[in-house]
Amino acid sequence: MTTGARFVVTGGAGFIGSTLVRTLLKRGSVVVIDNLLTGKEANLQEVRGQIEFHNVDIRHAAALEPVIRGADTVFHLAAIPSVPRSIEDPVPSHEVNIDGTFNVLRAAAQGGVRRVVYAASSSGYGDTEVLPKTETMAPLPKSPYAVQKLLGEYYASVFHSCYGLEAVSLRFFNVYGPRQDPTSPYSGVLSLFMKHLLERASPTIFGDGEQSRDFTYVEDVAELCWKASQASGVAGKMYNAGNGNQYTLNRIWKLLQEMEGVDLPARHGPVRGGDVRHSQADTAAAIRDLGHSPRVTIEEGLRRTLEWYRQMEKKAE
Ligand code: UD2
Known about the structure:
two-stranded parallel sheet; alpha/beta; Rossmann fold
């Protein structure tokens, strides 16, 4: 990396993006692109004076190009996330996640950007017979969101082979941590669990709760994004960005209740459409090629995250 490098983070006001912004500020100057649809300026509060912020929608190619031109690395995290949201309202997620990703890659290729790190999704694997899930497995997307994120990977790889853009994809596995928004019906399950726990309310678990996820702490993911921007020999490739663990929802909810010393049995609802049953990353390739080293255990991550939500509640009082 050259000193004074310029990094662009699309979706930089979002939950993961705003954590990445803080990681990057130690290493160069940071430009954020976000249309504040799901991102929030509050996520960037204490670093707002250190960054350049552009309220731009990635569907708007002409507005993207001048911001992206000449950047060292573009971290492309802007997306409309959520499996159920992509089923219930597929047009915006299709346009942002596919057309928007194309626009970002094209602007990067044309604008002389050295590398793009693309936030792909573990949903691309779908239900595999074998766990953990390795990068060589055939994708089996079960939802529009999974298809959209997969297509972004294919585009990233093709932008490398056809236009020479150093694009690398990271399949994020259920990321959690501070600043994850718990207020939408499409919020990540752990943010909803935290909210319910602090309100002493029972959460709803869709299905029997024995589905499992590789919950990955947000700072570990941000660090891996950085490493992916620096590693050699990785252009055009895709890597798992997970912890390598597997926890059922029932187990996590039990852990959280124990941490707070409460007894709040979860309610159960029907299984969600497009839901993957089990998810766990094989981290070997990311460790070997990117130097991935996830540090935060689930107990530690839950503790830190819960503390953050508690502080937020206190501030709101
Ligand atoms: C998918 C991807 C994840 C990321 C994310 C972005 C998989 C395995 N993971 O996450 O990598 O791309 O999409 O949105 O595809 N649930 C409840 N109660 C609730 C909310 C959720 O039981 O109130 C369940 C839900 O049915 C699922 C699990 O919790 O089994 C996780 O759901 P989620 O929405 O947090 O994330 P998921 O797995 O769809």
